[in-house]
């Protein structure tokens, strides 16, 4: 009878310990479910959930909102880290895809850009490039991209345009590209005459550049300065200012011996008409080359920017993975300690 009673007591104690462990596990599960529901409600209200601690607090403890989870909610750092990891992974996929697209388009754009330089070089040898010519008014034409995520090429164009406007107080602005318009409109809202956007949705042709050049020449500015990024390599771009003078200013420059125009014999139309044709054709050729140069620089800069972004995303993903594993291991260790402590307390009571 005594042995039977002892066996029954041992069996009862085992069952009690099992029930206690089950109750402890269920309580932790209920606490976790409650924390998840609270976090989902707080997340819907716009609360940020960014983990900053690598150690998991004990179950049932409260944390502040500044520690990465909603205020007065039990910690759910594992869920927050997992959400952040998925977000960074998706961003990395996008940046890699954008890099591949830019790299595939770069070669063709570079070929067209190099061929267009053959149109510009004869004009530079014949008429020169005289940005320091003093005129009554100046027209500044910054050429930028229509899309972002391409490094600082648009910022460089805006900076050079700002300097040119400071040198010519009465200068007017004709913007090509949406990104330069957004920045210059804040600086010089009263100086912008025209804005041309969406020029790169279709492959650029000389006809498109000539139509834009006609709009620029219609303003009869004595001096027009094109600001763009000259393509040097996939990682090097040089902000450049190209100057186009009107036929009257070209006549003055020829008389002063600034250009080599008088060293050539002219046949056909008279001198003034010939200079007018040269000025218009130079504007079209320079604008066509400038838009191709800037487009090629945009693709090269976007390729480098997306490569850097992909590297940064990869490094961030590694850090988040390490944080996730450490936090998960800390949570498991905490649960094991609680279970062992509960079982030890039951045994000590027996």
Write out key terms for the chains shown.
350 residues; alpha/beta; 5-stranded mixed β-sheet; two-stranded antiparallel ribbon; 7 helices; elongated
In words, what does this structure look like?
The chain is built from 7 helices and 7 strands. With about 350 residues, it is an alpha/beta fold. Strands 5-4-3-6-7 form a 5-stranded mixed beta sheet, with helices on both faces. Helix 3 packs across helix 4 and helix 6 crosses helix 7. It starts with a helix and ends with a helix. About 10% of the residues have low confidence.
Characterize this entry briefly:
The protein is an alpha/beta fold and about 350 residues long. Helices cover about 65% and strands about 10% of the residues. The protein is elongated.
Helices, strands, pairings?
Layout: H1 2-44, E1 62-63, E2 73-74, H2 77-127, E3 138-142, H3 153-167, E4 172-176, H4 178-187, E5 192-196, H5 206-217, E6 223-233, E7 236-245, H6 247-256, H7 271-349
């Amino acid at each position: 009878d005594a042995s039977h009673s002892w066996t029954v007591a041992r069996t009862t104690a085992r069952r009690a310990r099992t029930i206690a462990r089950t109750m402890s596990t269920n309580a932790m599960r209920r606490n976790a479910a409650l924390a998840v529901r609270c976090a989902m409600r707080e997340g819907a209200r716009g609360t940020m959930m960014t983990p900053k601690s690598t150690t998991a607090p004990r179950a049932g403890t409260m944390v502040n909102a500044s520690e990465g989870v909603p205020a007065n909610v039990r910690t759910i750092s594992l869920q927050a880290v997992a959400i952040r990891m998925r977000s960074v992974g998706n961003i990395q996929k996008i940046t890699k895809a954008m890099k591949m697209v830019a790299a595939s388009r770069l070669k063709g754009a570079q070929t067209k850009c190099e061929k267009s330089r053959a149109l510009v070089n004869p004009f530079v040898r014949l008429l020169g490039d005289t940005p320091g010519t003093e005129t009554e008014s100046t027209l500044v034409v910054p050429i930028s991209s229509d899309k972002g995520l391409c490094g600082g090429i648009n910022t460089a164009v805006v900076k050079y345009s700002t300097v040119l406007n400071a040198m010519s107080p009465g200068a007017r602005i004709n913007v090509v590209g949406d990104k330069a318009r957004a920045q210059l409109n804040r600086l010089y809202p009263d100086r912008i005459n025209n804005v041309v956007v969406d020029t790169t949705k279709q492959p650029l042709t000389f006809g498109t550049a000539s139509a834009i050049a006609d709009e620029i020449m219609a303003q009869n500015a004595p001096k027009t300065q094109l600001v763009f990024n000259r393509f040097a390599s996939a990682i090097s771009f040089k902000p450049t200012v190209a100057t186009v003078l009107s036929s009257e200013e070209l006549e003055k420059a020829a008389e002063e011996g600034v250009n080599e125009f008088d060293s050539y014999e002219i046949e056909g139309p008279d001198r003034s008409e010939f200079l007018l044709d040269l000025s218009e054709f130079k504007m079209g050729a320079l604008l066509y080359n400038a838009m191709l140069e800037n487009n090629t620089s945009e693709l090269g800069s976007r390729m480098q920017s997306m490569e850097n972004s992909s590297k940064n995303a990869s490094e961030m993903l590694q850090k988040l993975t390490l944080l996730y594993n450490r936090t998960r291991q800390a949570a498991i260790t905490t649960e094991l300690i609680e279970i062992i402590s509960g079982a030890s307390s039951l045994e000590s009571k027996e």
